[in-house]
Write a structure and sequence with these properties.
The complex is a heterodimer. Chain A is α/β, with parallel strands linked by helices. Chain A has helices at 54-62, 84-94, 110-120, 125-138, 154-166, 184-198, and strands at 10-21, 28-39, 43-47, 69-74, 95-98, 172-176, 204-208, 220-225, 228-234, 243-246. Chain A is globular and about 50 Å long. The relative contact order of chain A is 0.18. In chain B, the strands form three sheets. A six-stranded mixed barrel of chain B has the order 3-4-11-6-10-9. In chain B, strands 2-12 form a two-stranded antiparallel sheet. Chain B is elongated and about 95 Å long. Chain B starts with a helix and ends in an 8-residue tail after the last helix. Classes of the chains: A alpha/beta, B alpha+beta. At the A-B interface, helix 1, helix 2 and helix 3 of A face helix 1 and helix 10 of B. Bound molecules: adenosine-5'-triphosphate and magnesium ion (MG). Adenosine-5'-triphosphate is lined by residues 21-22, 28, 30, 50-56 of chain A. The site of adenosine-5'-triphosphate has 11 residues of chain A, from strand 2 and helix 1.
Chain lengths: 248, 390
């Protein structure tokens, strides 16, 4: 798998990505030709009305859903050229996931939950757990490593989930509505934490959200509608008045 | 990952207990029924165990099991003794006779007649509760077993009152066997017999005197080979010399067990019970396990998204099924053993868990749990990781 892209500073590069669900009359065109690039070190937010294809897009980017057409490279790799097994393994090393409903395994302690990606990648249990405790400390839950998810508040659970998405040092983290199950203040704190611990020089983040109150944490905001990227707003380049680039 | 799989299973208390109790129930049903079955089989051949000295048994060729007494002519003993390689051969009588008790009641009993000279085939000295085996050398003497003395042969305190309480019959008392006097000279312990009937020991010559006059009175001939003579070869030689069937105790036991399992219909009966246990086990445990897996499908999908291959997930499910199987089996085995302990002194049931049942039930329960796992395997393998964002 040699990198096809020459631009090594791009984490994700999609051109004309299409995806539809179902057949015949029931066919739904979820992505109708998406162009987007995500740079290494940036936090991109993906916003848009319900059903516009946000989740579908990050699923394609994360390699858990096959696109129908177009091109998509993640750190220079094209999932369609990998075997199922290669793709699964690559995902385990490269991608971190954060979900709206946290999705922690209810019968595992916080540390065990955080350790899961390391265990999947073949680390020994003791190493995985000690690393997990370190990362839990970084998200401010160093003393709660023994707790079960049910013993933690929503915000704490999402912090555990963030620790889990970080623990194996993935190069791309995808988050679907990470704050919408949390109240505003907690959501805000979770995003602060995100910026603090997750954004890094060699890592890219894609955050799908509805929540306008967290837009301030984005480097760029991509607005989607009906399977297209409508516009991309760059918040880094122009402080105060952000520039909006219309796509198409 | 393995520990994780186990925590996933055990952490889900309700379902875990459901799966285990399904498997435990199946295991209990199978072990308990088969334990009775094996106990029953060993009852059918307990007469063999009573005479450990006999290295081979000679019987009528048509005999199907030990209780199937088809007496031979008395001179057969001499013919067997004359076969080269036979160290010794003794007659053995086994027949049902009518006994009349001191209080006038009648009772059928199984009479065992052992060799007058050697007294081989009688109760083991360590099993004598009162009197000695040697007492059989006295005239008209019989030895009865303890169960017989306390229940079947127990006599009414007041002979004229049918409702009178009964007391155990005692050494020194006299009964009639086929209208002939028989005096009790000893009481012994014996292995439980199949029909649980009254058991009376006496000498061969006295037994055939008690028995109705017939030409054929020798039920079996017990024999042993000379040193260095192969038992199986000797069986062949006796067969060709006498036309009778000669078997090692093991062969006779197999013949007896075969009869009860296949011709007696017990195999079908217990086979159905085992099948029933398997069906129940697969039914309950399979359903519960399927529920467990479907309830956890979301987490399996997350693991898949986070980089666990399908084979890893299958491994986890198999491990979960195996642990549930082991636990269910162990619990069922424990309960069945408890049952065995409760009935250990029973006159009705002999309960045995031979190694083959111990191992066989373990294998069966593991197969049941793997079969249960198999039912939910497809959903795990086909699981679409894209569902994690749903
Ligand atoms: N598995 C599926 N089968 C059929 N249609 C689907 C499936 N998943 C999504 N869709 C459809 O595809 C379109 C895009 O769905 P998607 O989940 O990507 O939207 P979204 O932008 O994430 O919406 P929301 O903000 O509500 O989460 C929708 O019309 C949806 O109904
Ligand atoms: Mg969505």
């Amino acid at each position: 798998m040699k990198p096809v892209s020459t631009k090594t500073n791009l984490a994700v590069e999609c051109r004309g990505v299409t995806k539809s669900y179902g057949k015949g009359d029931a066919k739904v065109h979820a992505l109708r030709g998406v162009d987007i690039s995500i740079g290494v070190g940036e936090l991109l937010m993906l916003v848009g009305p319900s059903g516009c294809g946000k989740t579908t897009l990050i699923s394609v980017i994360a390699g858990i859903l096959d696109r129908d057409g177009g091109e998509c490279r993640v750190f220079g790799h094209d999932y369609m050229q990998m075997s199922g097994r290669e793709r699964t393994r690559w995902r385990g090393k490269t991608i971190g996931f954060v979900f709206q409903s946290f999705n922690l395994l209810p019968t595992l302690s916080a540390a065990e939950n955080v350790a899961v990606p390391l265990l999947i990648n073949g680390h020994s249990r003791s190493r995985a757990i000690s690393k997990a405790k370190d990362v839990l400390a970084r998200v401010g839950l160093g003393d709660r490593w023994k707790s079960l998810p049910s013993q933690l508040s929503g915000g704490q659970q999402q912090r555990v989930a963030i620790a889990r998405a970080l623990v194996h040092d993935p190069k791309l983290i995808v988050c679907d509505e990470p704050t919408s199950a949390l109240d505003h203040e907690t959501g805000h704190r979770v995003m602060e934490l995100f910026r603090e611990v997750a954004v890094g020089e060699d890592r890219a983040l894609v955050v799908v959200t509805h929540d306008a109150r967290i837009f301030e944490f984005a480097d760029r905001i991509a607005r989607m509608d009906d399977g297209h990227i409508e516009s991309i707003e760059d918040k880094k380049r122009s402080v105060g008045t952000s520039s909006i680039t219309s796509v198409q | 990952m393995n520990l994780l799989a186990l925590k996933m299973l055990i952490g889900d208390r309700a379902k875990y207990l459901g799966i285990i109790s399904g498997l435990c129930f199946a295991s209990l049903l199978i072990v308990q029924q088969m334990g009775i079955f094996f106990g029953f089989l060993s009852l059918t051949s307990s007469a063999l165990a009573r005479v450990p000295e006999a290295r081979l048994w000679v019987a009528d060729p048509d005999v199907r099991f030990i209780g199937d007494s088809r007496p031979m002519l008395d001179n057969m003993l001499l013919r067997v003794r004359s076969v080269p390689g036979v160290a010794w051969a003794i007659p053995y009588y086994n027949g049902n006779l009518r006994a009349r008790l001191p209080d006038g009641r009648g009772e059928t009993c199984s009479v065992v007649g052992i060799d007058d000279a050697s007294l081989i085939g009688g109760p083991h000295p360590s099993n004598m509760i009162e009197g000695t085996v040697e007492n059989l050398r006295m005239s008209d003497s019989i030895i009865i077993d303890q169960r017989t003395a306390q229940t079947m042969f127990a006599v009414r305190e007041n002979p004229s009152d049918p409702n009178s309480p009964r007391r155990p019959i005692r050494v020194g008392e006299t009964i009639e066997l086929n209208d002939q006097r028989a005096t009790i000279v000893g009481i012994c312990k014996t292995l439980l017999q199949l029909q649980g009937e009254a058991t009376v020991f006496t000498t061969f010559n006295r037994a055939i005197k008690f028995a109705p006059a017939e030409r054929r009175r020798t039920s079996f001939i017990l024999a042993a080979p000379n040193e260095g003579v192969d038992v199986r070869q000797l069986c062949q030689d006796i067969k060709s010399a006498t036309g009778m069937l000669a078997m090692t105790p093991q062969e006779f036991q197999d013949k007896t067990w075969n009869f009860f399992v296949f011709e007696g219909g017990f195999g079908v009966f217990f086979g159905i019970t085992v099948l029933f246990g398997v069906v129940i086990g697969v039914g309950i445990a399979g359903q519960m396990f399927y529920n467990f897996v479907t309830d956890n499908l979301r987490y399996f999908a997350i693991l898949k998204a986070m980089g666990s291959g399908a084979s890893r997930l299958v491994q986890m499910v198999i491990l979960q099924a195996t642990v549930a199987g082991l636990m269910g089996w162990a619990l069922g085995m424990g309960l069945a053993s408890g049952f065995g302990y409760l009935v250990r002194d029973s006159d009705q049931i002999l309960f045995e868990i031979p190694p083959v049942l111990f191992g066989g039930s373990l294998v069966l329960i593991l197969m049941i749990s793997w079969l249960s796992a198999m039912m939910s395997m497809r959903t795990v393998i086909r699981l679409d990781p894209a569902t994690v964002f749903k």
